[in-house]
Every structure is written in C-alpha cells, then in structure tokens.
Specification:
Layout (H helix, E strand, L loop, with lengths): L9 H43 L1 H24 L8 E3 L3 E3 L9 H29 L2 H16 L8 H7 L6 H15 L2 H19 L13 H32 L6
Antiparallel strand pairs: 1-2
Length: about 260
Amino acid sequence: MEQEPKPKSKNSILGGLAVLGIAFMKFKLFIFMMLKQGLSMFIMIGVYAMFFGPIYALIVVALILIHESGHYIFMKFFGLDPKLPVFIPFFGAFVAMEKLPPDQAVDAWVSLAGPLVGGVTSVILFFFGVQQGNGIMMAAGSTGCFFNLLQLIPAKPFDGGFVINAIAKWVLIPGAAMVFLAAYLLESPLFFILGIFSAFSAYRSFTGQVSERDLIKPATGLEKVMIGVAYFTLAGALGYIYYLSSDALVSFLPANKT
C-alpha cells in the first residue's frame, strides 16, 4: 500500500518562499542595473543623433562602448569586479571597479586597454570606410582615433594619466599643460575644466595628498619599460593614423574632388 505524501511543513514553505523572494529581488536588481546602464547609452545616442545624425551617432557611441569594453575585459581578467559602463553625453563613458588594482602596473594596463581596443577598432573602421568609399565610416573612424588619442593625454582623469603615473608621475605636470592646450585648440570650456582638475591632481601627487589608488605597489623597472613602450607606440600610431585620416577626409569631400 502506497503511503500518502506528507504535507510540507510551514517552515519549509516559508523557506521556499524566502528563497524565491531573494532570487526575485536579485533578478529585479539585475534588470534595474541593465536598464540603468542601457538607458545612459541610449540617451547619449539620442543626444548625438540630434547634432550629428543617427547613423554617425550609433557608430561613435559603439566605438565608445568598445573602448570601455577594453577596460572592462582587463578589469575582469585581473579580478577587479568591474561594473557595466555608464555613458555621459559629451563626456564619454566610464567603467567603475569594486576593487583596487594590486599594483600600478595592473592599473596602467587596465587604463591602456581602453585606448588600445578602441583605437585599433577605430583604425579598422576608418580603412574599411576608405575601401568602401563610405564617408560616414571614415568620419566615425577618424573621430574614434581622435577620441582614443585624447584619452592618452598623460594627465588625470584621462586614461593616459593613470598609465603615466606608473612610469614617472612628474609627466603629469606637462600633461596638465597639454589639457589646457587642447582646451585652447578645441575652444572647449569642458577641457578647460578638466585642465584645472588635472593641474590640481598633479599638485596633490607632489604634496602627499594622494588617493588610495595612488598608494598601491609601484611598478618594477621592467614593468615601467614595457608600459612605456606600449604607451608611446600606441600614442604615436594613433596620432599618425589620425593625421592621415584628416587628410583623407578633406580629399574625400566633393568640393575637393576634381
């Protein structure tokens, strides 16, 4: 004779409901975070589309996403628990990390990863646009090269500032001057504000008023050489490609064709 199944106890039912409730809250939090990150990206696309058109806006925001993905992947590789990118129109985007890098070498490679991945993608996009005779792709690729090149300025909060901090922090001083020069050449109040921030950050580095991120283990001599070679090679390559892309875009314009 089969025994009838025993009714579940009140405690087991409550326990099951509690597990379901926790799972639901975590899933709800995950959905909220995804919507939050995605919303910032779509807002940026919308803002850029109003100024530059939808196709160009989509490509440029995609290039920014790829740049930030470089940071994200390296942070994930080094176990720094990165968060999803947050987009801010006309500022770019950023990826926050829950943990500090174990040393300045890791911090430098994580910072360099964005311009590396984003820069290479921008170069490929530009030359693909040249082959296809597509002016939008050429313009977006050139813009991507310029954006990633700017990120290599050796001043904080740019990526280059955290890279150069691992090599020789005194370079942060001329780096801050470069930000002011960029503000003048681009006629950008935003870069002027960033220049003030960069100058203040450099000042703090030499007065001992540093952040917790600046107190991590210094890079070794060999690590400094390797980081320096990678940094200056990437900056030089992106600068040269951007120079070529600017000339190519000018000659591509209908008014300059014979």
